[in-house]
Design brief:
single chain; mainly alpha; Arc Repressor Mutant, subunit A; 2 domains; two-stranded antiparallel sheet; 2 strands; 64% helix
């Protein structure tokens, strides 16, 4: 089963390689013709572990980082929506309808959206900014955030 021979540097290096390949303690012991305790001792001296907890922790950290990246990307997209919709507030606006007895299509341009449509656009802007900030809060810009919040509330008539 095991051997009472001293552990060589080559065996230590082989344990490191096999561990890196994902092999378990018992499998490494069988490959090297050593006992499980010897392999555990070598691994410990190399700073290696056969604990699944370490693998789970690393996988969790990777998943957490991936989700943070995805949240940041989503926050950016929401910021883009807010900026795009905000541009529409004071620009010419196309109104159209389709229907009637003849199923005709009509359209007309106005210099800017109606007050009700401006309110609706600002609602989209406010929601997009709010969600963006929840997904990726600013580091320390609390004054700027308060100013944006006050400005949005003012644009929406205090609602």
């Amino acid at each position: 089963m095991g051997s009472s021979n001293p552990v060589t540097d080559e065996e230590r290096e082989r344990v490191r390689e096999l561990h890196a390949e994902g092999k378990g303690r018992n499998e490494i012991a069988e490959i090297l013709g050593r006992g499980g305790r010897t392999i555990s001792s070598i691994a410990k001296s190399l700073g290696l572990s056969f604990s699944r907890a370490a693998e789970v922790r690393q996988a969790t950290e990777i998943r957490t980082a991936d989700l943070a990246d995805r949240r940041a990307a989503l926050a950016q997209r929401l910021q883009d929506v807010a900026e795009r919709e905000l541009e529409k507030v004071n620009k010419p606006h196309l109104y159209w309808d389709w229907g009637g007895k003849e199923h005709d299509y009509d359209e007309r341009w106005h210099d800017e959206p109606t007050p009700g449509d401006k309110r609706a656009l600002m609602g989209v802007v406010a929601t997009a900014i709010d969600r963006s900030l929840k997904l990726a809060p600013p580091e320390q810009d609390t004054e700027g955030l308060a100013a944006v919040d006050a400005w949005l509330k003012g644009m929406m008539g205090g609602t």
